């Protein structure tokens, strides 16, 4: 962990209704790289969506679960969110689709932001779909609902105005630590952690019988609504190792799968179907493709 005096960091909580472009915006900011958070806390209240890291600063973008849903008592909910979910939040980022009519839920959110006591930057996204002059009435409308820290028109898709947004967020960062090692920021965090978990179970259950000559490739990861299907291949170097990994009547492989699945479910906070295959590939250590896939080159 760096602790340079000049280093600044902070938490930015993203709010906004579905389809306004929150994910696109985060992808644009962090360049498709999101954070590996392997030891996920019990609660998902501060779910980390993305981490933007440079040599001088780190912005941790968090999710505010449920805020986008229509809410009867939104005002109360915002207070609740401020108290419970946003202990660490330095700034709110409220993202809206400026090319569309302002939604009732968005009005409600805007009117209730002051209850959180947090500064809030309003992001008017998708400006590429509209004329500049049409922005002014929207800015006026939102300004009448809440005194926003700033209002930033952007096109997340075209990476337009995003630098201004980052600059505005910087005002709310504080001198502080790098909360997450920038090495933890990857483009395939879930795949890599899943592979790590499977490897860990293998090493643990097989002890020294199949020493180090194994590698895991996640061949497919399908996110369904209620379940994530994961297909993984365990590569080993010898046919005899394959036998040990599979075990009598497949019992060892079953055990590995059950234990790994449990941990992956905790990590993803979702039901998991895990299918494991074992293959002998004696020269996998020399294979660029596999090594890249296994994340050894991170
Ligand atoms: P989320 O539900 O808020 O995370 O929204 P997404 O990031 O998934 O985006 C929803 C849709 O809006 C996708 O089809 C995006 O490609 C599109 N979108 C996001 N940002 C922009 C933008 O700046 N301009 C345009 N034209 N489309 C965008
Ligand atoms: Mg999204
Ligand atoms: K937070």
Write a structural description.
With 298 residues, this protein is of the alpha/beta class. It folds into two domains: 8-183, Rossmann fold, CATH 3.40.50.300; 188-293, K homology (KH) domain (GMP Synthetase, Chain A, domain 3, 2-Layer Sandwich), CATH 3.30.300.20. It contains nine helices and twelve strands. The protein has helices at residues 22-30, 74-85, 104-112, 135-145, 162-170, 189-206, 239-246, 251-268, 288-293, and strands at 8-15, 34-35, 48-53, 57-63, 89-97, 120-125, 150-153, 174-175, 185-186, 215-223, 227-236, 271-280. The strands form three sheets. Strands 1, 3, 4, 5, 6, 7 and 8 form a seven-stranded mixed beta sheet that branches. It has a three-stranded mixed beta sheet with strand order 10-11-12. It binds guanosine-5'-diphosphate, magnesium ion and potassium ion. Residues 11, 13, 46, 62, 86, 88-89 line the site of potassium ion.
Output the keywords.
single chain, 298 residues, alpha/beta, Rossmann fold, GMP Synthetase, Chain A, domain 3, 2 domains, 9 helices, elongated, binds guanosine-5'-diphosphate, binds magnesium ion, binds potassium ion
Helix-strand sequence: EHEEEHEHEHEHEEHEEHHEH
Largest sheet: 7 strands, mixed
Tell me the CATH architecture of the largest domain.
3-Layer(aba) Sandwich
CATH superfamily of the largest domain: P-loop containing nucleotide triphosphate hydrolases
- The count of helical stretches stands at 9
How many domains, in number, for the residues?
Answer: 2
Morphology call: elongated
On the 0 to 100 scale, the average pLDDT is 81
Q: Into which percentage range does the β-strand content fall?
A: 25-35%
| Bound chemical compounds | guanosine-5'-diphosphate, magnesium ion, potassium ion
Low-confidence stretches: 38-45, 289-298
Helicity, in percent?
A: 25-40%
According to CATH, the fold-level topology of the largest domain is: Rossmann fold
């Amino acid at each position: 962990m760096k602790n340079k005096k000049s280093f600044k960091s902070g938490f930015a909580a993203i709010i906004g209704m579905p389809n306004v472009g929150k994910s696109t915006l985060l992808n644009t900011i962090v360049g498709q790289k999101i954070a590996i958070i392997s030891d996920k806390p019990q609660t998902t209240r501060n779910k980390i969506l993305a981490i933007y890291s440079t040599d001088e600063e780190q912005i941790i973008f968090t999710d505010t679960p449920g805020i986008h849903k229509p809410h009867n008592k939104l005002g109360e909910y915002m207070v609740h969110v401020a108290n419970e979910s946003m202990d660490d939040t330095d700034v709110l980022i409220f993202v809206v689709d400026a090319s569309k009519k302002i939604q009732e839920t968005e009005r409600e959110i805007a009117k209730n932001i002051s209850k959180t006591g947090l500064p809030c930057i309003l992001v008017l996204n998708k400006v590429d779909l509209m004329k500049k002059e049409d922005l002014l009435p929207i800015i006026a409308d939102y300004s009448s609902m809440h005194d926003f820290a700033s209002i930033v028109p952007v096109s997340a898709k075209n990476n337009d105005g995003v630098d201004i947004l980052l600059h505005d967020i910087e005002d709310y960062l504080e001198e502080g630590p790098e909360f997450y090692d920038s090495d933890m920021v990857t483009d395939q965090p879930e795949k890599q952690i899943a592979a790590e978990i499977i490897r860990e179970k293998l090493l643990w259950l097989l002890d020294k019988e199949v020493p180090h000559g194994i590698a895991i490739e996640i061949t497919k990861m399908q996110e369904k609504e209620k379940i994530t299907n994961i297909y993984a291949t365990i590569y080993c170097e010898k046919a005899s190792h394959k036998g040990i990994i599979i075990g009598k009547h497949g019992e060892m492989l079953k055990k590995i799968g059950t234990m790994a699945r449990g941990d992956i479910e905790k990590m993803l906070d979702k039901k998991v179907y895990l299918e494991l295959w074992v293959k002998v590939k004696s020269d996998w250590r020399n294979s660029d493709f596999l090594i890249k896939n296994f994340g050894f080159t991170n």
